Amino acid sequence: MRLLADEGITYPQGYRAAAVHCGIRKKALDLALIVSDRPAVAAGLFTRNRCCAAPVIVARRHLGSKSVRGILVNSGNANAATGAAGIHAAERCLKETARRLGCAPAQLLVASTGIIGVPLPVERIIDALDELVANLSPANGARAAEAIMTTDTFPKQRACSVALRGGTVRLGGIAKGAGMIMPNMATMLAFITCDAQIGRTRWQRILRQAVQLSFNRITVDGDTSTNDCVFGLANGASGVAVDREEEHTLYKALEALCIELAQLIVRDGEGATKFVTVVVEGCRRVREADAIARTVANSPLVKTALTGCNPNWGRVIAAAGRAGVAFDPDRLDVYFNDVLTVKNGCAAGVSKAVLDELFKQKEITIRIVLHEGRASATIWTTDLSHEYVNINVAYS
Amino acid sequence: MRLLADEGITYPQGYRAAAVHCGIRKKALDLALIVSDRPAVAAGLFTRNRCCAAPVIVARRHLGSKSVRGILVNSGNANAATGAAGIHAAERCLKETARRLGCAPAQLLVASTGIIGVPLPVERIIDALDELVANLSPANGARAAEAIMTTDTFPKQRACSVALRGGTVRLGGIAKGAGMIMPNMATMLAFITCDAQIGRTRWQRILRQAVQLSFNRITVDGDTSTNDCVFGLANGASGVAVDREEEHTLYKALEALCIELAQLIVRDGEGATKFVTVVVEGCRRVREADAIARTVANSPLVKTALTGCNPNWGRVIAAAGRAGVAFDPDRLDVYFNDVLTVKNGCAAGVSKAVLDELFKQKEITIRIVLHEGRASATIWTTDLSHEYVNINVAYS
């Protein structure tokens, strides 16, 4: 299945999008609307951050609606740590949008990304809604991808077709990365559209599973945001129903789309100079493999070694050892891009020249094998460069 | 109780120390020996890293000895990820040292700090032992503090006296910080000497408690080393026995000494521009307070905000919210140096000018109050500066 790079959320039938500059950010597009022409079933996954933002609270509530018509999203302001006023602000924006679309406010989802703790400039958003709704078009999917960017250096969209027995269905998606605004909160947003006919429960189930193996497998700096969310709409506009047997086919396409968008987020991670895959195998439990992979991926020492093209594998085993997982260090093997570098917990005798060359690669897979069981986990991540610090020490 | 800055491990009676350059590092002192003239009871705490180093394995075993005579420590090589050969190397060094001191090898503890995965240059160490033993003197405590440094920018030693009913006892200590060598593994070592008469079990208990509230409350980059250890010797040379009633008096002095040494490590943390205290109060459980304090202290976004003197309190509440602890975000208060900045989860209305001034301070206390219970925890940490990245991306 081929993913299209120049198509996104309006690739599936029956979707339109629009984006405008409403004045939250200085110049860039900062407000987008994604609309399904017909009622769609909606699924959503949210940040587990206890201090979740107002739009997360509102969108979670609206996901209970039988049908959904669209998603309103702004960049430049997270509407987080804004209390009851923040919730009221999000609801007011949806109410005004719903009136213009001729639907109920509860049929709209909302997302925000940007600075925390600053009141959402509701009037600027409402003043821009007429223009936003007027601009809704299948041609504007890429503009929506642009409007959700913060410190992202490129917009992220992908789409694909899936041939089912009843015909072809389409999937599209946009995402924004673990970036800062002004510079502020790392926030990950992704919106997926689909024109298949599928029930709400099944759509939610396959989206959850796909997110688990894609967006939940990435880390740039370990800082889970207050605003993370992934929404998926399925509007049935293709006229193709997805039966239980074919659900897996649709799922695989959705998974591939989500993995690609997730990896784009990592590639565009703040200050990233490398794309790093951490694979942990041979664990007793998946959650143990996951814990080790995340600890290695988030280790500042491993990350800075990667930035410096420094084949310092000791940092990898030290990070693995502090992940809170019981294992026998004398059976630990570590591969860098398939070169066995640590065997039974000791140097495997790879020459410095070979290691130096390995660590110069832009894409590095660190594979850690514990020989304790059969569970495994993969995490995609970046390094920790001067540029990451540059971006995040700056105030405005 | 006053801590002396120009005294260290040879301040208590009956201890001598020596340090030499044996050739593991290029120029600096890299081998030290601390000896008690009489048999001492020994206590030790070790890294919980699964991939612990050979000296950790050997020292843990020797701590079972009824009495201990000394500690051999090298910098420049961690003797970690070196397998059975590493254990044999550590044992050989101790055997040769014991022969020269006229004690059993099991009466010596061993510690190493430096690069991981490189065989310990045993011959260089053994060749230096005659000179090392010849130099043993009560005057050389400061040289030992110097010999355990890696990327530390200053040696760390403190000492104090404690008046008990039976007379005065003394405590001394040295420590090295979370630095890299060549540049490699963050390693924290600390050695405490005492001339009180105290039983091994009680000495171990009060040392464990003091470490829990000092060295275990600091983090520079969250990367627990393979080699961390704290050893404490109590040799009774003062002739003053510590009875059960006075144990607490000795404990408080030991705790103060350990806290001071731990804070020195943080102040000398790699690239540190700030000394940061994170206090979390009002939790249901201490481990919950601890989890939040550590998550905030290790958050790259909080750390870079501190480096940039950027009063971005949103990053603090976002980090608190992702610590895996259940709490009501609408009751969360956050103070920076006693200024209430976040009240009930929202901005408390402190002016930007006041916040900017606060964040310029070199010492910042972040106090997070949850109002869920009465448990609290404190963590001391640093920021994340360009210099941290500089130090850790470099290869050699």
Question: What is the gist of this entry?
Answer:
Two copies of one chain form a homodimer. Chain A has eleven helices and 15 strands.
Characterise the protein shown here.
- 2 copies of one chain form a homodimer.
- The longest helix of chain A has 24 residues, at 244-267.
- The radius of gyration of chain A is 22 Å and the shape is globular.
- Chain A folds into 2 domains: 15-265, L-amino peptidase D-ALA esterase/amidase, CATH 3.60.70; 275-393, ArgJ beta chain, C-terminal domain (Ubiquitin-like (UB roll)), CATH 3.10.20.
- Residues 179-186 of chain A have low confidence and may be disordered.
- Chain A is built from 11 helices and 15 strands.
- In chain A, a hairpin with a 2-residue loop joins strand 12 and strand 13.
- The two termini of chain A are 43 Å apart.
- In chain A, helix 2 (83-101) packs parallel to helix 3 (122-134), helix 5 packs parallel to helix 6 and helix 7 (286-298) packs across helix 9 (313-321).
- With 396 residues, the first copy, chain A, is of the alpha+beta class.
- Chain A has helices at 54-62, 83-101, 122-134, 141-147, 200-212, 244-267, 286-298, 300-307, 313-321, 352-359, 386-393, and strands at residues 15-20, 31-46, 68-77, 108-115, 156-164, 167-179, 187-194, 218-219, 229-234, 275-283, 333-336, 339-343, 346-347, 363-369, 375-381.
- In chain A, 61% of the residues are buried.
- In chain A, strands 1, 2, 3, 4, 5, 6, 7 and 9 form an 8-stranded mixed β-sheet that branches.
- Chains A and B meet through helix 8, helix 9, strand 13 and helix 11 of A and helix 8, helix 9, strand 13 and helix 11 of B.
